[in-house]
Amino acid sequence: EFDAKDERYRALQDAKQARNLWPTWWKGHFRVGKVHAALDEHEKAIKSFERAFALDPTKTEIQAALDESRIVLHRQSQVDYLDPRLYTKTIREVLNELQQKFGTDPETVRNYHRLIEENDPSGADVWKGHQYELGDVDVEQDYEQAAKYFAKAASQGNAEGMYNLARLTDRGLGVKKDHSLALRLLEQAAEQPLEHSILKGCPNVGVAEAEHALGVRYFEGISVRKNLSVAVYWYQRATDHGSAMAANNLGSMYLDGLAVDKNLKKGEELLALAARREDPVAMLTLAEILLNKNDFQMAKIWYDRACESGNVVAQQNRDEFTQKLEALQQRSSIELDGIKTVNNYINLLQAKISPSVVSECSYMKDYNTLKEYANRGSIIARQLCAALDHFAKALNMLLHYDSFTEEQEETFIHELSQCYRIETIVAQIPCAMNKRVSEVIKQVLDRCIIESKSVASQIDEDVRLCYAALHLNSDQLIDQFLGPCKQKYPKSIYFFLISGVANGFLRRPEDGLYNINCGLEIEPDNYELLYHRAVLLRHIRNDMDEAIKAYQTFLRVAPKDHRKIPEAYYEMAICYMHGYTLDVAMDAIIKLYREGKEAEKLQLPCFLPYKSENIAFIKPLVDMMGLEQNTESVPVNKRKQRLTDPHKVEVIQKHREWEGKTLQEKYNRGHTVISTSIKPRIKQQTANSLVGLKLITLRELNPTKDQVYNGYVLTVTIIEEAYSWTPSIHLVIEDENFDCERMLIYGFPEEHGEYLIGKMYTIGSKMHVINPYLRIGAADRKPTVRVDDFSSIVMQSESERILNMCRCCYKANASKVATLTQHLLNGSGLCRERCRCAYLESSRLTPTRILAPIVELSCSTRQ
User: Fold this and answer.
1) b/e for 248-280, b at 16 or more Cβ within 10 A?
2) Interatomic CA distance for residues 464 and 451, integer angstroms
3) For residues 496 and 486, is the Cβ–Cβ distance under 8 A?
4) How far is 203 from 201, CA to CA, in rounded Å?
5) Helix or strand or coil: residue 753?
6) What pLDDT score does 851 carry?
7) Pairing of β 712-720 and β 694-696
8) Mean pLDDT, to the nearest integer, of 100-121?
9) Taking the CA atoms of the chain, what radius of gyration do you get in angstroms?
10) 567-623 tens-digit pLDDT
11) Torsion of the alpha carbons at 4, 9, 14 and 18, rounded to the nearest 10
């Protein structure tokens, strides 16, 4: 609220007046941004800082202010102050919480840290750093001391020390605030080994956390060039290495179609993975998704879990959620199906626009195929090959030279700019090279700004083009940056093209259209400009007939294998959907849909299978008219759908790695696997009576809570073999929903172990588990179905067993039947060659690896 007496508002008015008097002076925009930041208006501050930075990218003070506002805005947008994981707790409170949840004795933890001082001094330094950061018994909170211990650990190569020092450096706690130094520390932490150097089999804490933090920095553009594709790369790495927050962020990007192809199924799977890893934000989002899918039981379960986890937003809105749930439960099945269809359609329409999309295609590997098509006369293939030639020269320079001379820098910029001029999509810069490419471009741009001023030159034009192409994710910055570029190089269509695209992303289609038209005055038949002109006219929505004519112009000019030809047909259909009533537009929509499908057949192999989000809007109408061929319903293979579930993949891979080590012990006398078990907080036992037991599934077991489900019975199928029984039998089980979890069986006579794994607990066998216990591991915090009372397992009859189950897709009657270890050694027990290859890849096992004479001492703690 405006306060006339507040000096900050007077300062803001003065700064704006100075900016308006001299709009091309960077300091005017910078001062406006500083005042907005002081007023906690960081979104406005970022816009002013980006304008200032575009006018003079050489000023480090602008980058520092921009970094700070982006960090603050990210924390505010993520509602960090409501995230229970970020509440400050003392060491004593943390240990007491662990004892309450998992039965971990606080004194045992303290004794462990005392013991590791000799064997792992850097780990001991990290522990001391945490004591000083959080406060502990006889230790007062002292950020400066915490930073010293984290720095000491970091200097010894400790990833956790690097990560925690980066956290403190980012916030200026105990050390000078320095976002660039924090970035370097995070990069160093992310480069460390994934496995702990001493505790074999245990993750190296700090690596996944740093990878997630790097994803956030590239997503927001903090101390780095904003690049959503690189953010996806880091989020995926962190997710693969166990990060819950990264899985949540990546899942949200897939739901929104932000820098990735929109994929609701994959987004939901990633959110479920994050929720299983105790992310309270993911729990709430997952509950809302399940509610929209009419899965009321699981929606309520996950909403309750979000509340229990401390999600303040969920707690505040519980009554509203309950009312919505109860209202939907009163609806008929027909009404619910209609609501679900509408919600799905709305979700498809809500894809967010981003200039960079992670491509599953590497155009470099398609070079030879493209060359063949080019020789047959394909203009598009010839252009792609030419762009790849320039791009390859640029990348080869990075590979061959650790540092560039000025002349080499300019050669690199020229090759990269030529690639962008010919075809931008092939310039897929590897993430490992991303930072160096940005640094080279910035160095050359700074040099050109200082040396050339207003003088035009080829290198200045080239580097500006590279800078603009790489910063498309920062729409405001690029919009401001391109103004002087267009003035300085009025005959370059590329600056007008990028400006048109950037304004489209900024939801300013009129401004974008003006720039595209300026480019067309220079090159009237440039089909890239013609396509974007049509797109912008469609977004303006003033005259859909004009937009349709613009698409038709593009179709007349562009080569038939241009990658946007099918999309043009589909977007024309969208124009009819928005511009006409359905009864008038239907014939045109069907015709354009068919033409788009025919155009897909003319696409180059590298663009197939063709992807278009517009098909999702058009195809329901075509299906409704019954005009699509082969419209008979195909049964949904739920098992096949679940094969790519990230949690299932993780469970199976970890199991196979564990059993691989067991086989190494069996075939290698020098290899030893030491397995230990930590006593559980509670003990599972069978029921006195089977009467009244209720059925329960794996998804109903809370993966964040250590709990015995008394009065319930869990029915599952064994889908992975066991090869050891000391101190427990390790299995992977699957329920009727094709959800899976690991299972550990204790309490059996040890002399029966070999018989049990060879004859009873075999792949394909089905069992009932009475009073199942979902044990949360004290060491790895991962859920496991644990059986302590051997009599609580009731095996189903042999007739219920899935015979010859494939070790990859888990179908019955695999063509080959495996003996105890054959399927690990040669892939037998698999139903087809594709499954054999996938199995060996997922297991990360080959006969060489299993039988190689490796002497290794590994430690794996099982719960």
Assistant:
1) bbbbbbbbbbbbbebeeebbbbbbbbbbbbbbb
2) 14
3) yes
4) 7
5) helix
6) 27
7) parallel
8) 83
9) 30
10) 999 999 999 999 988 888 999 999 999 999 999 999 999 999 999 988 888 887 787
11) -140
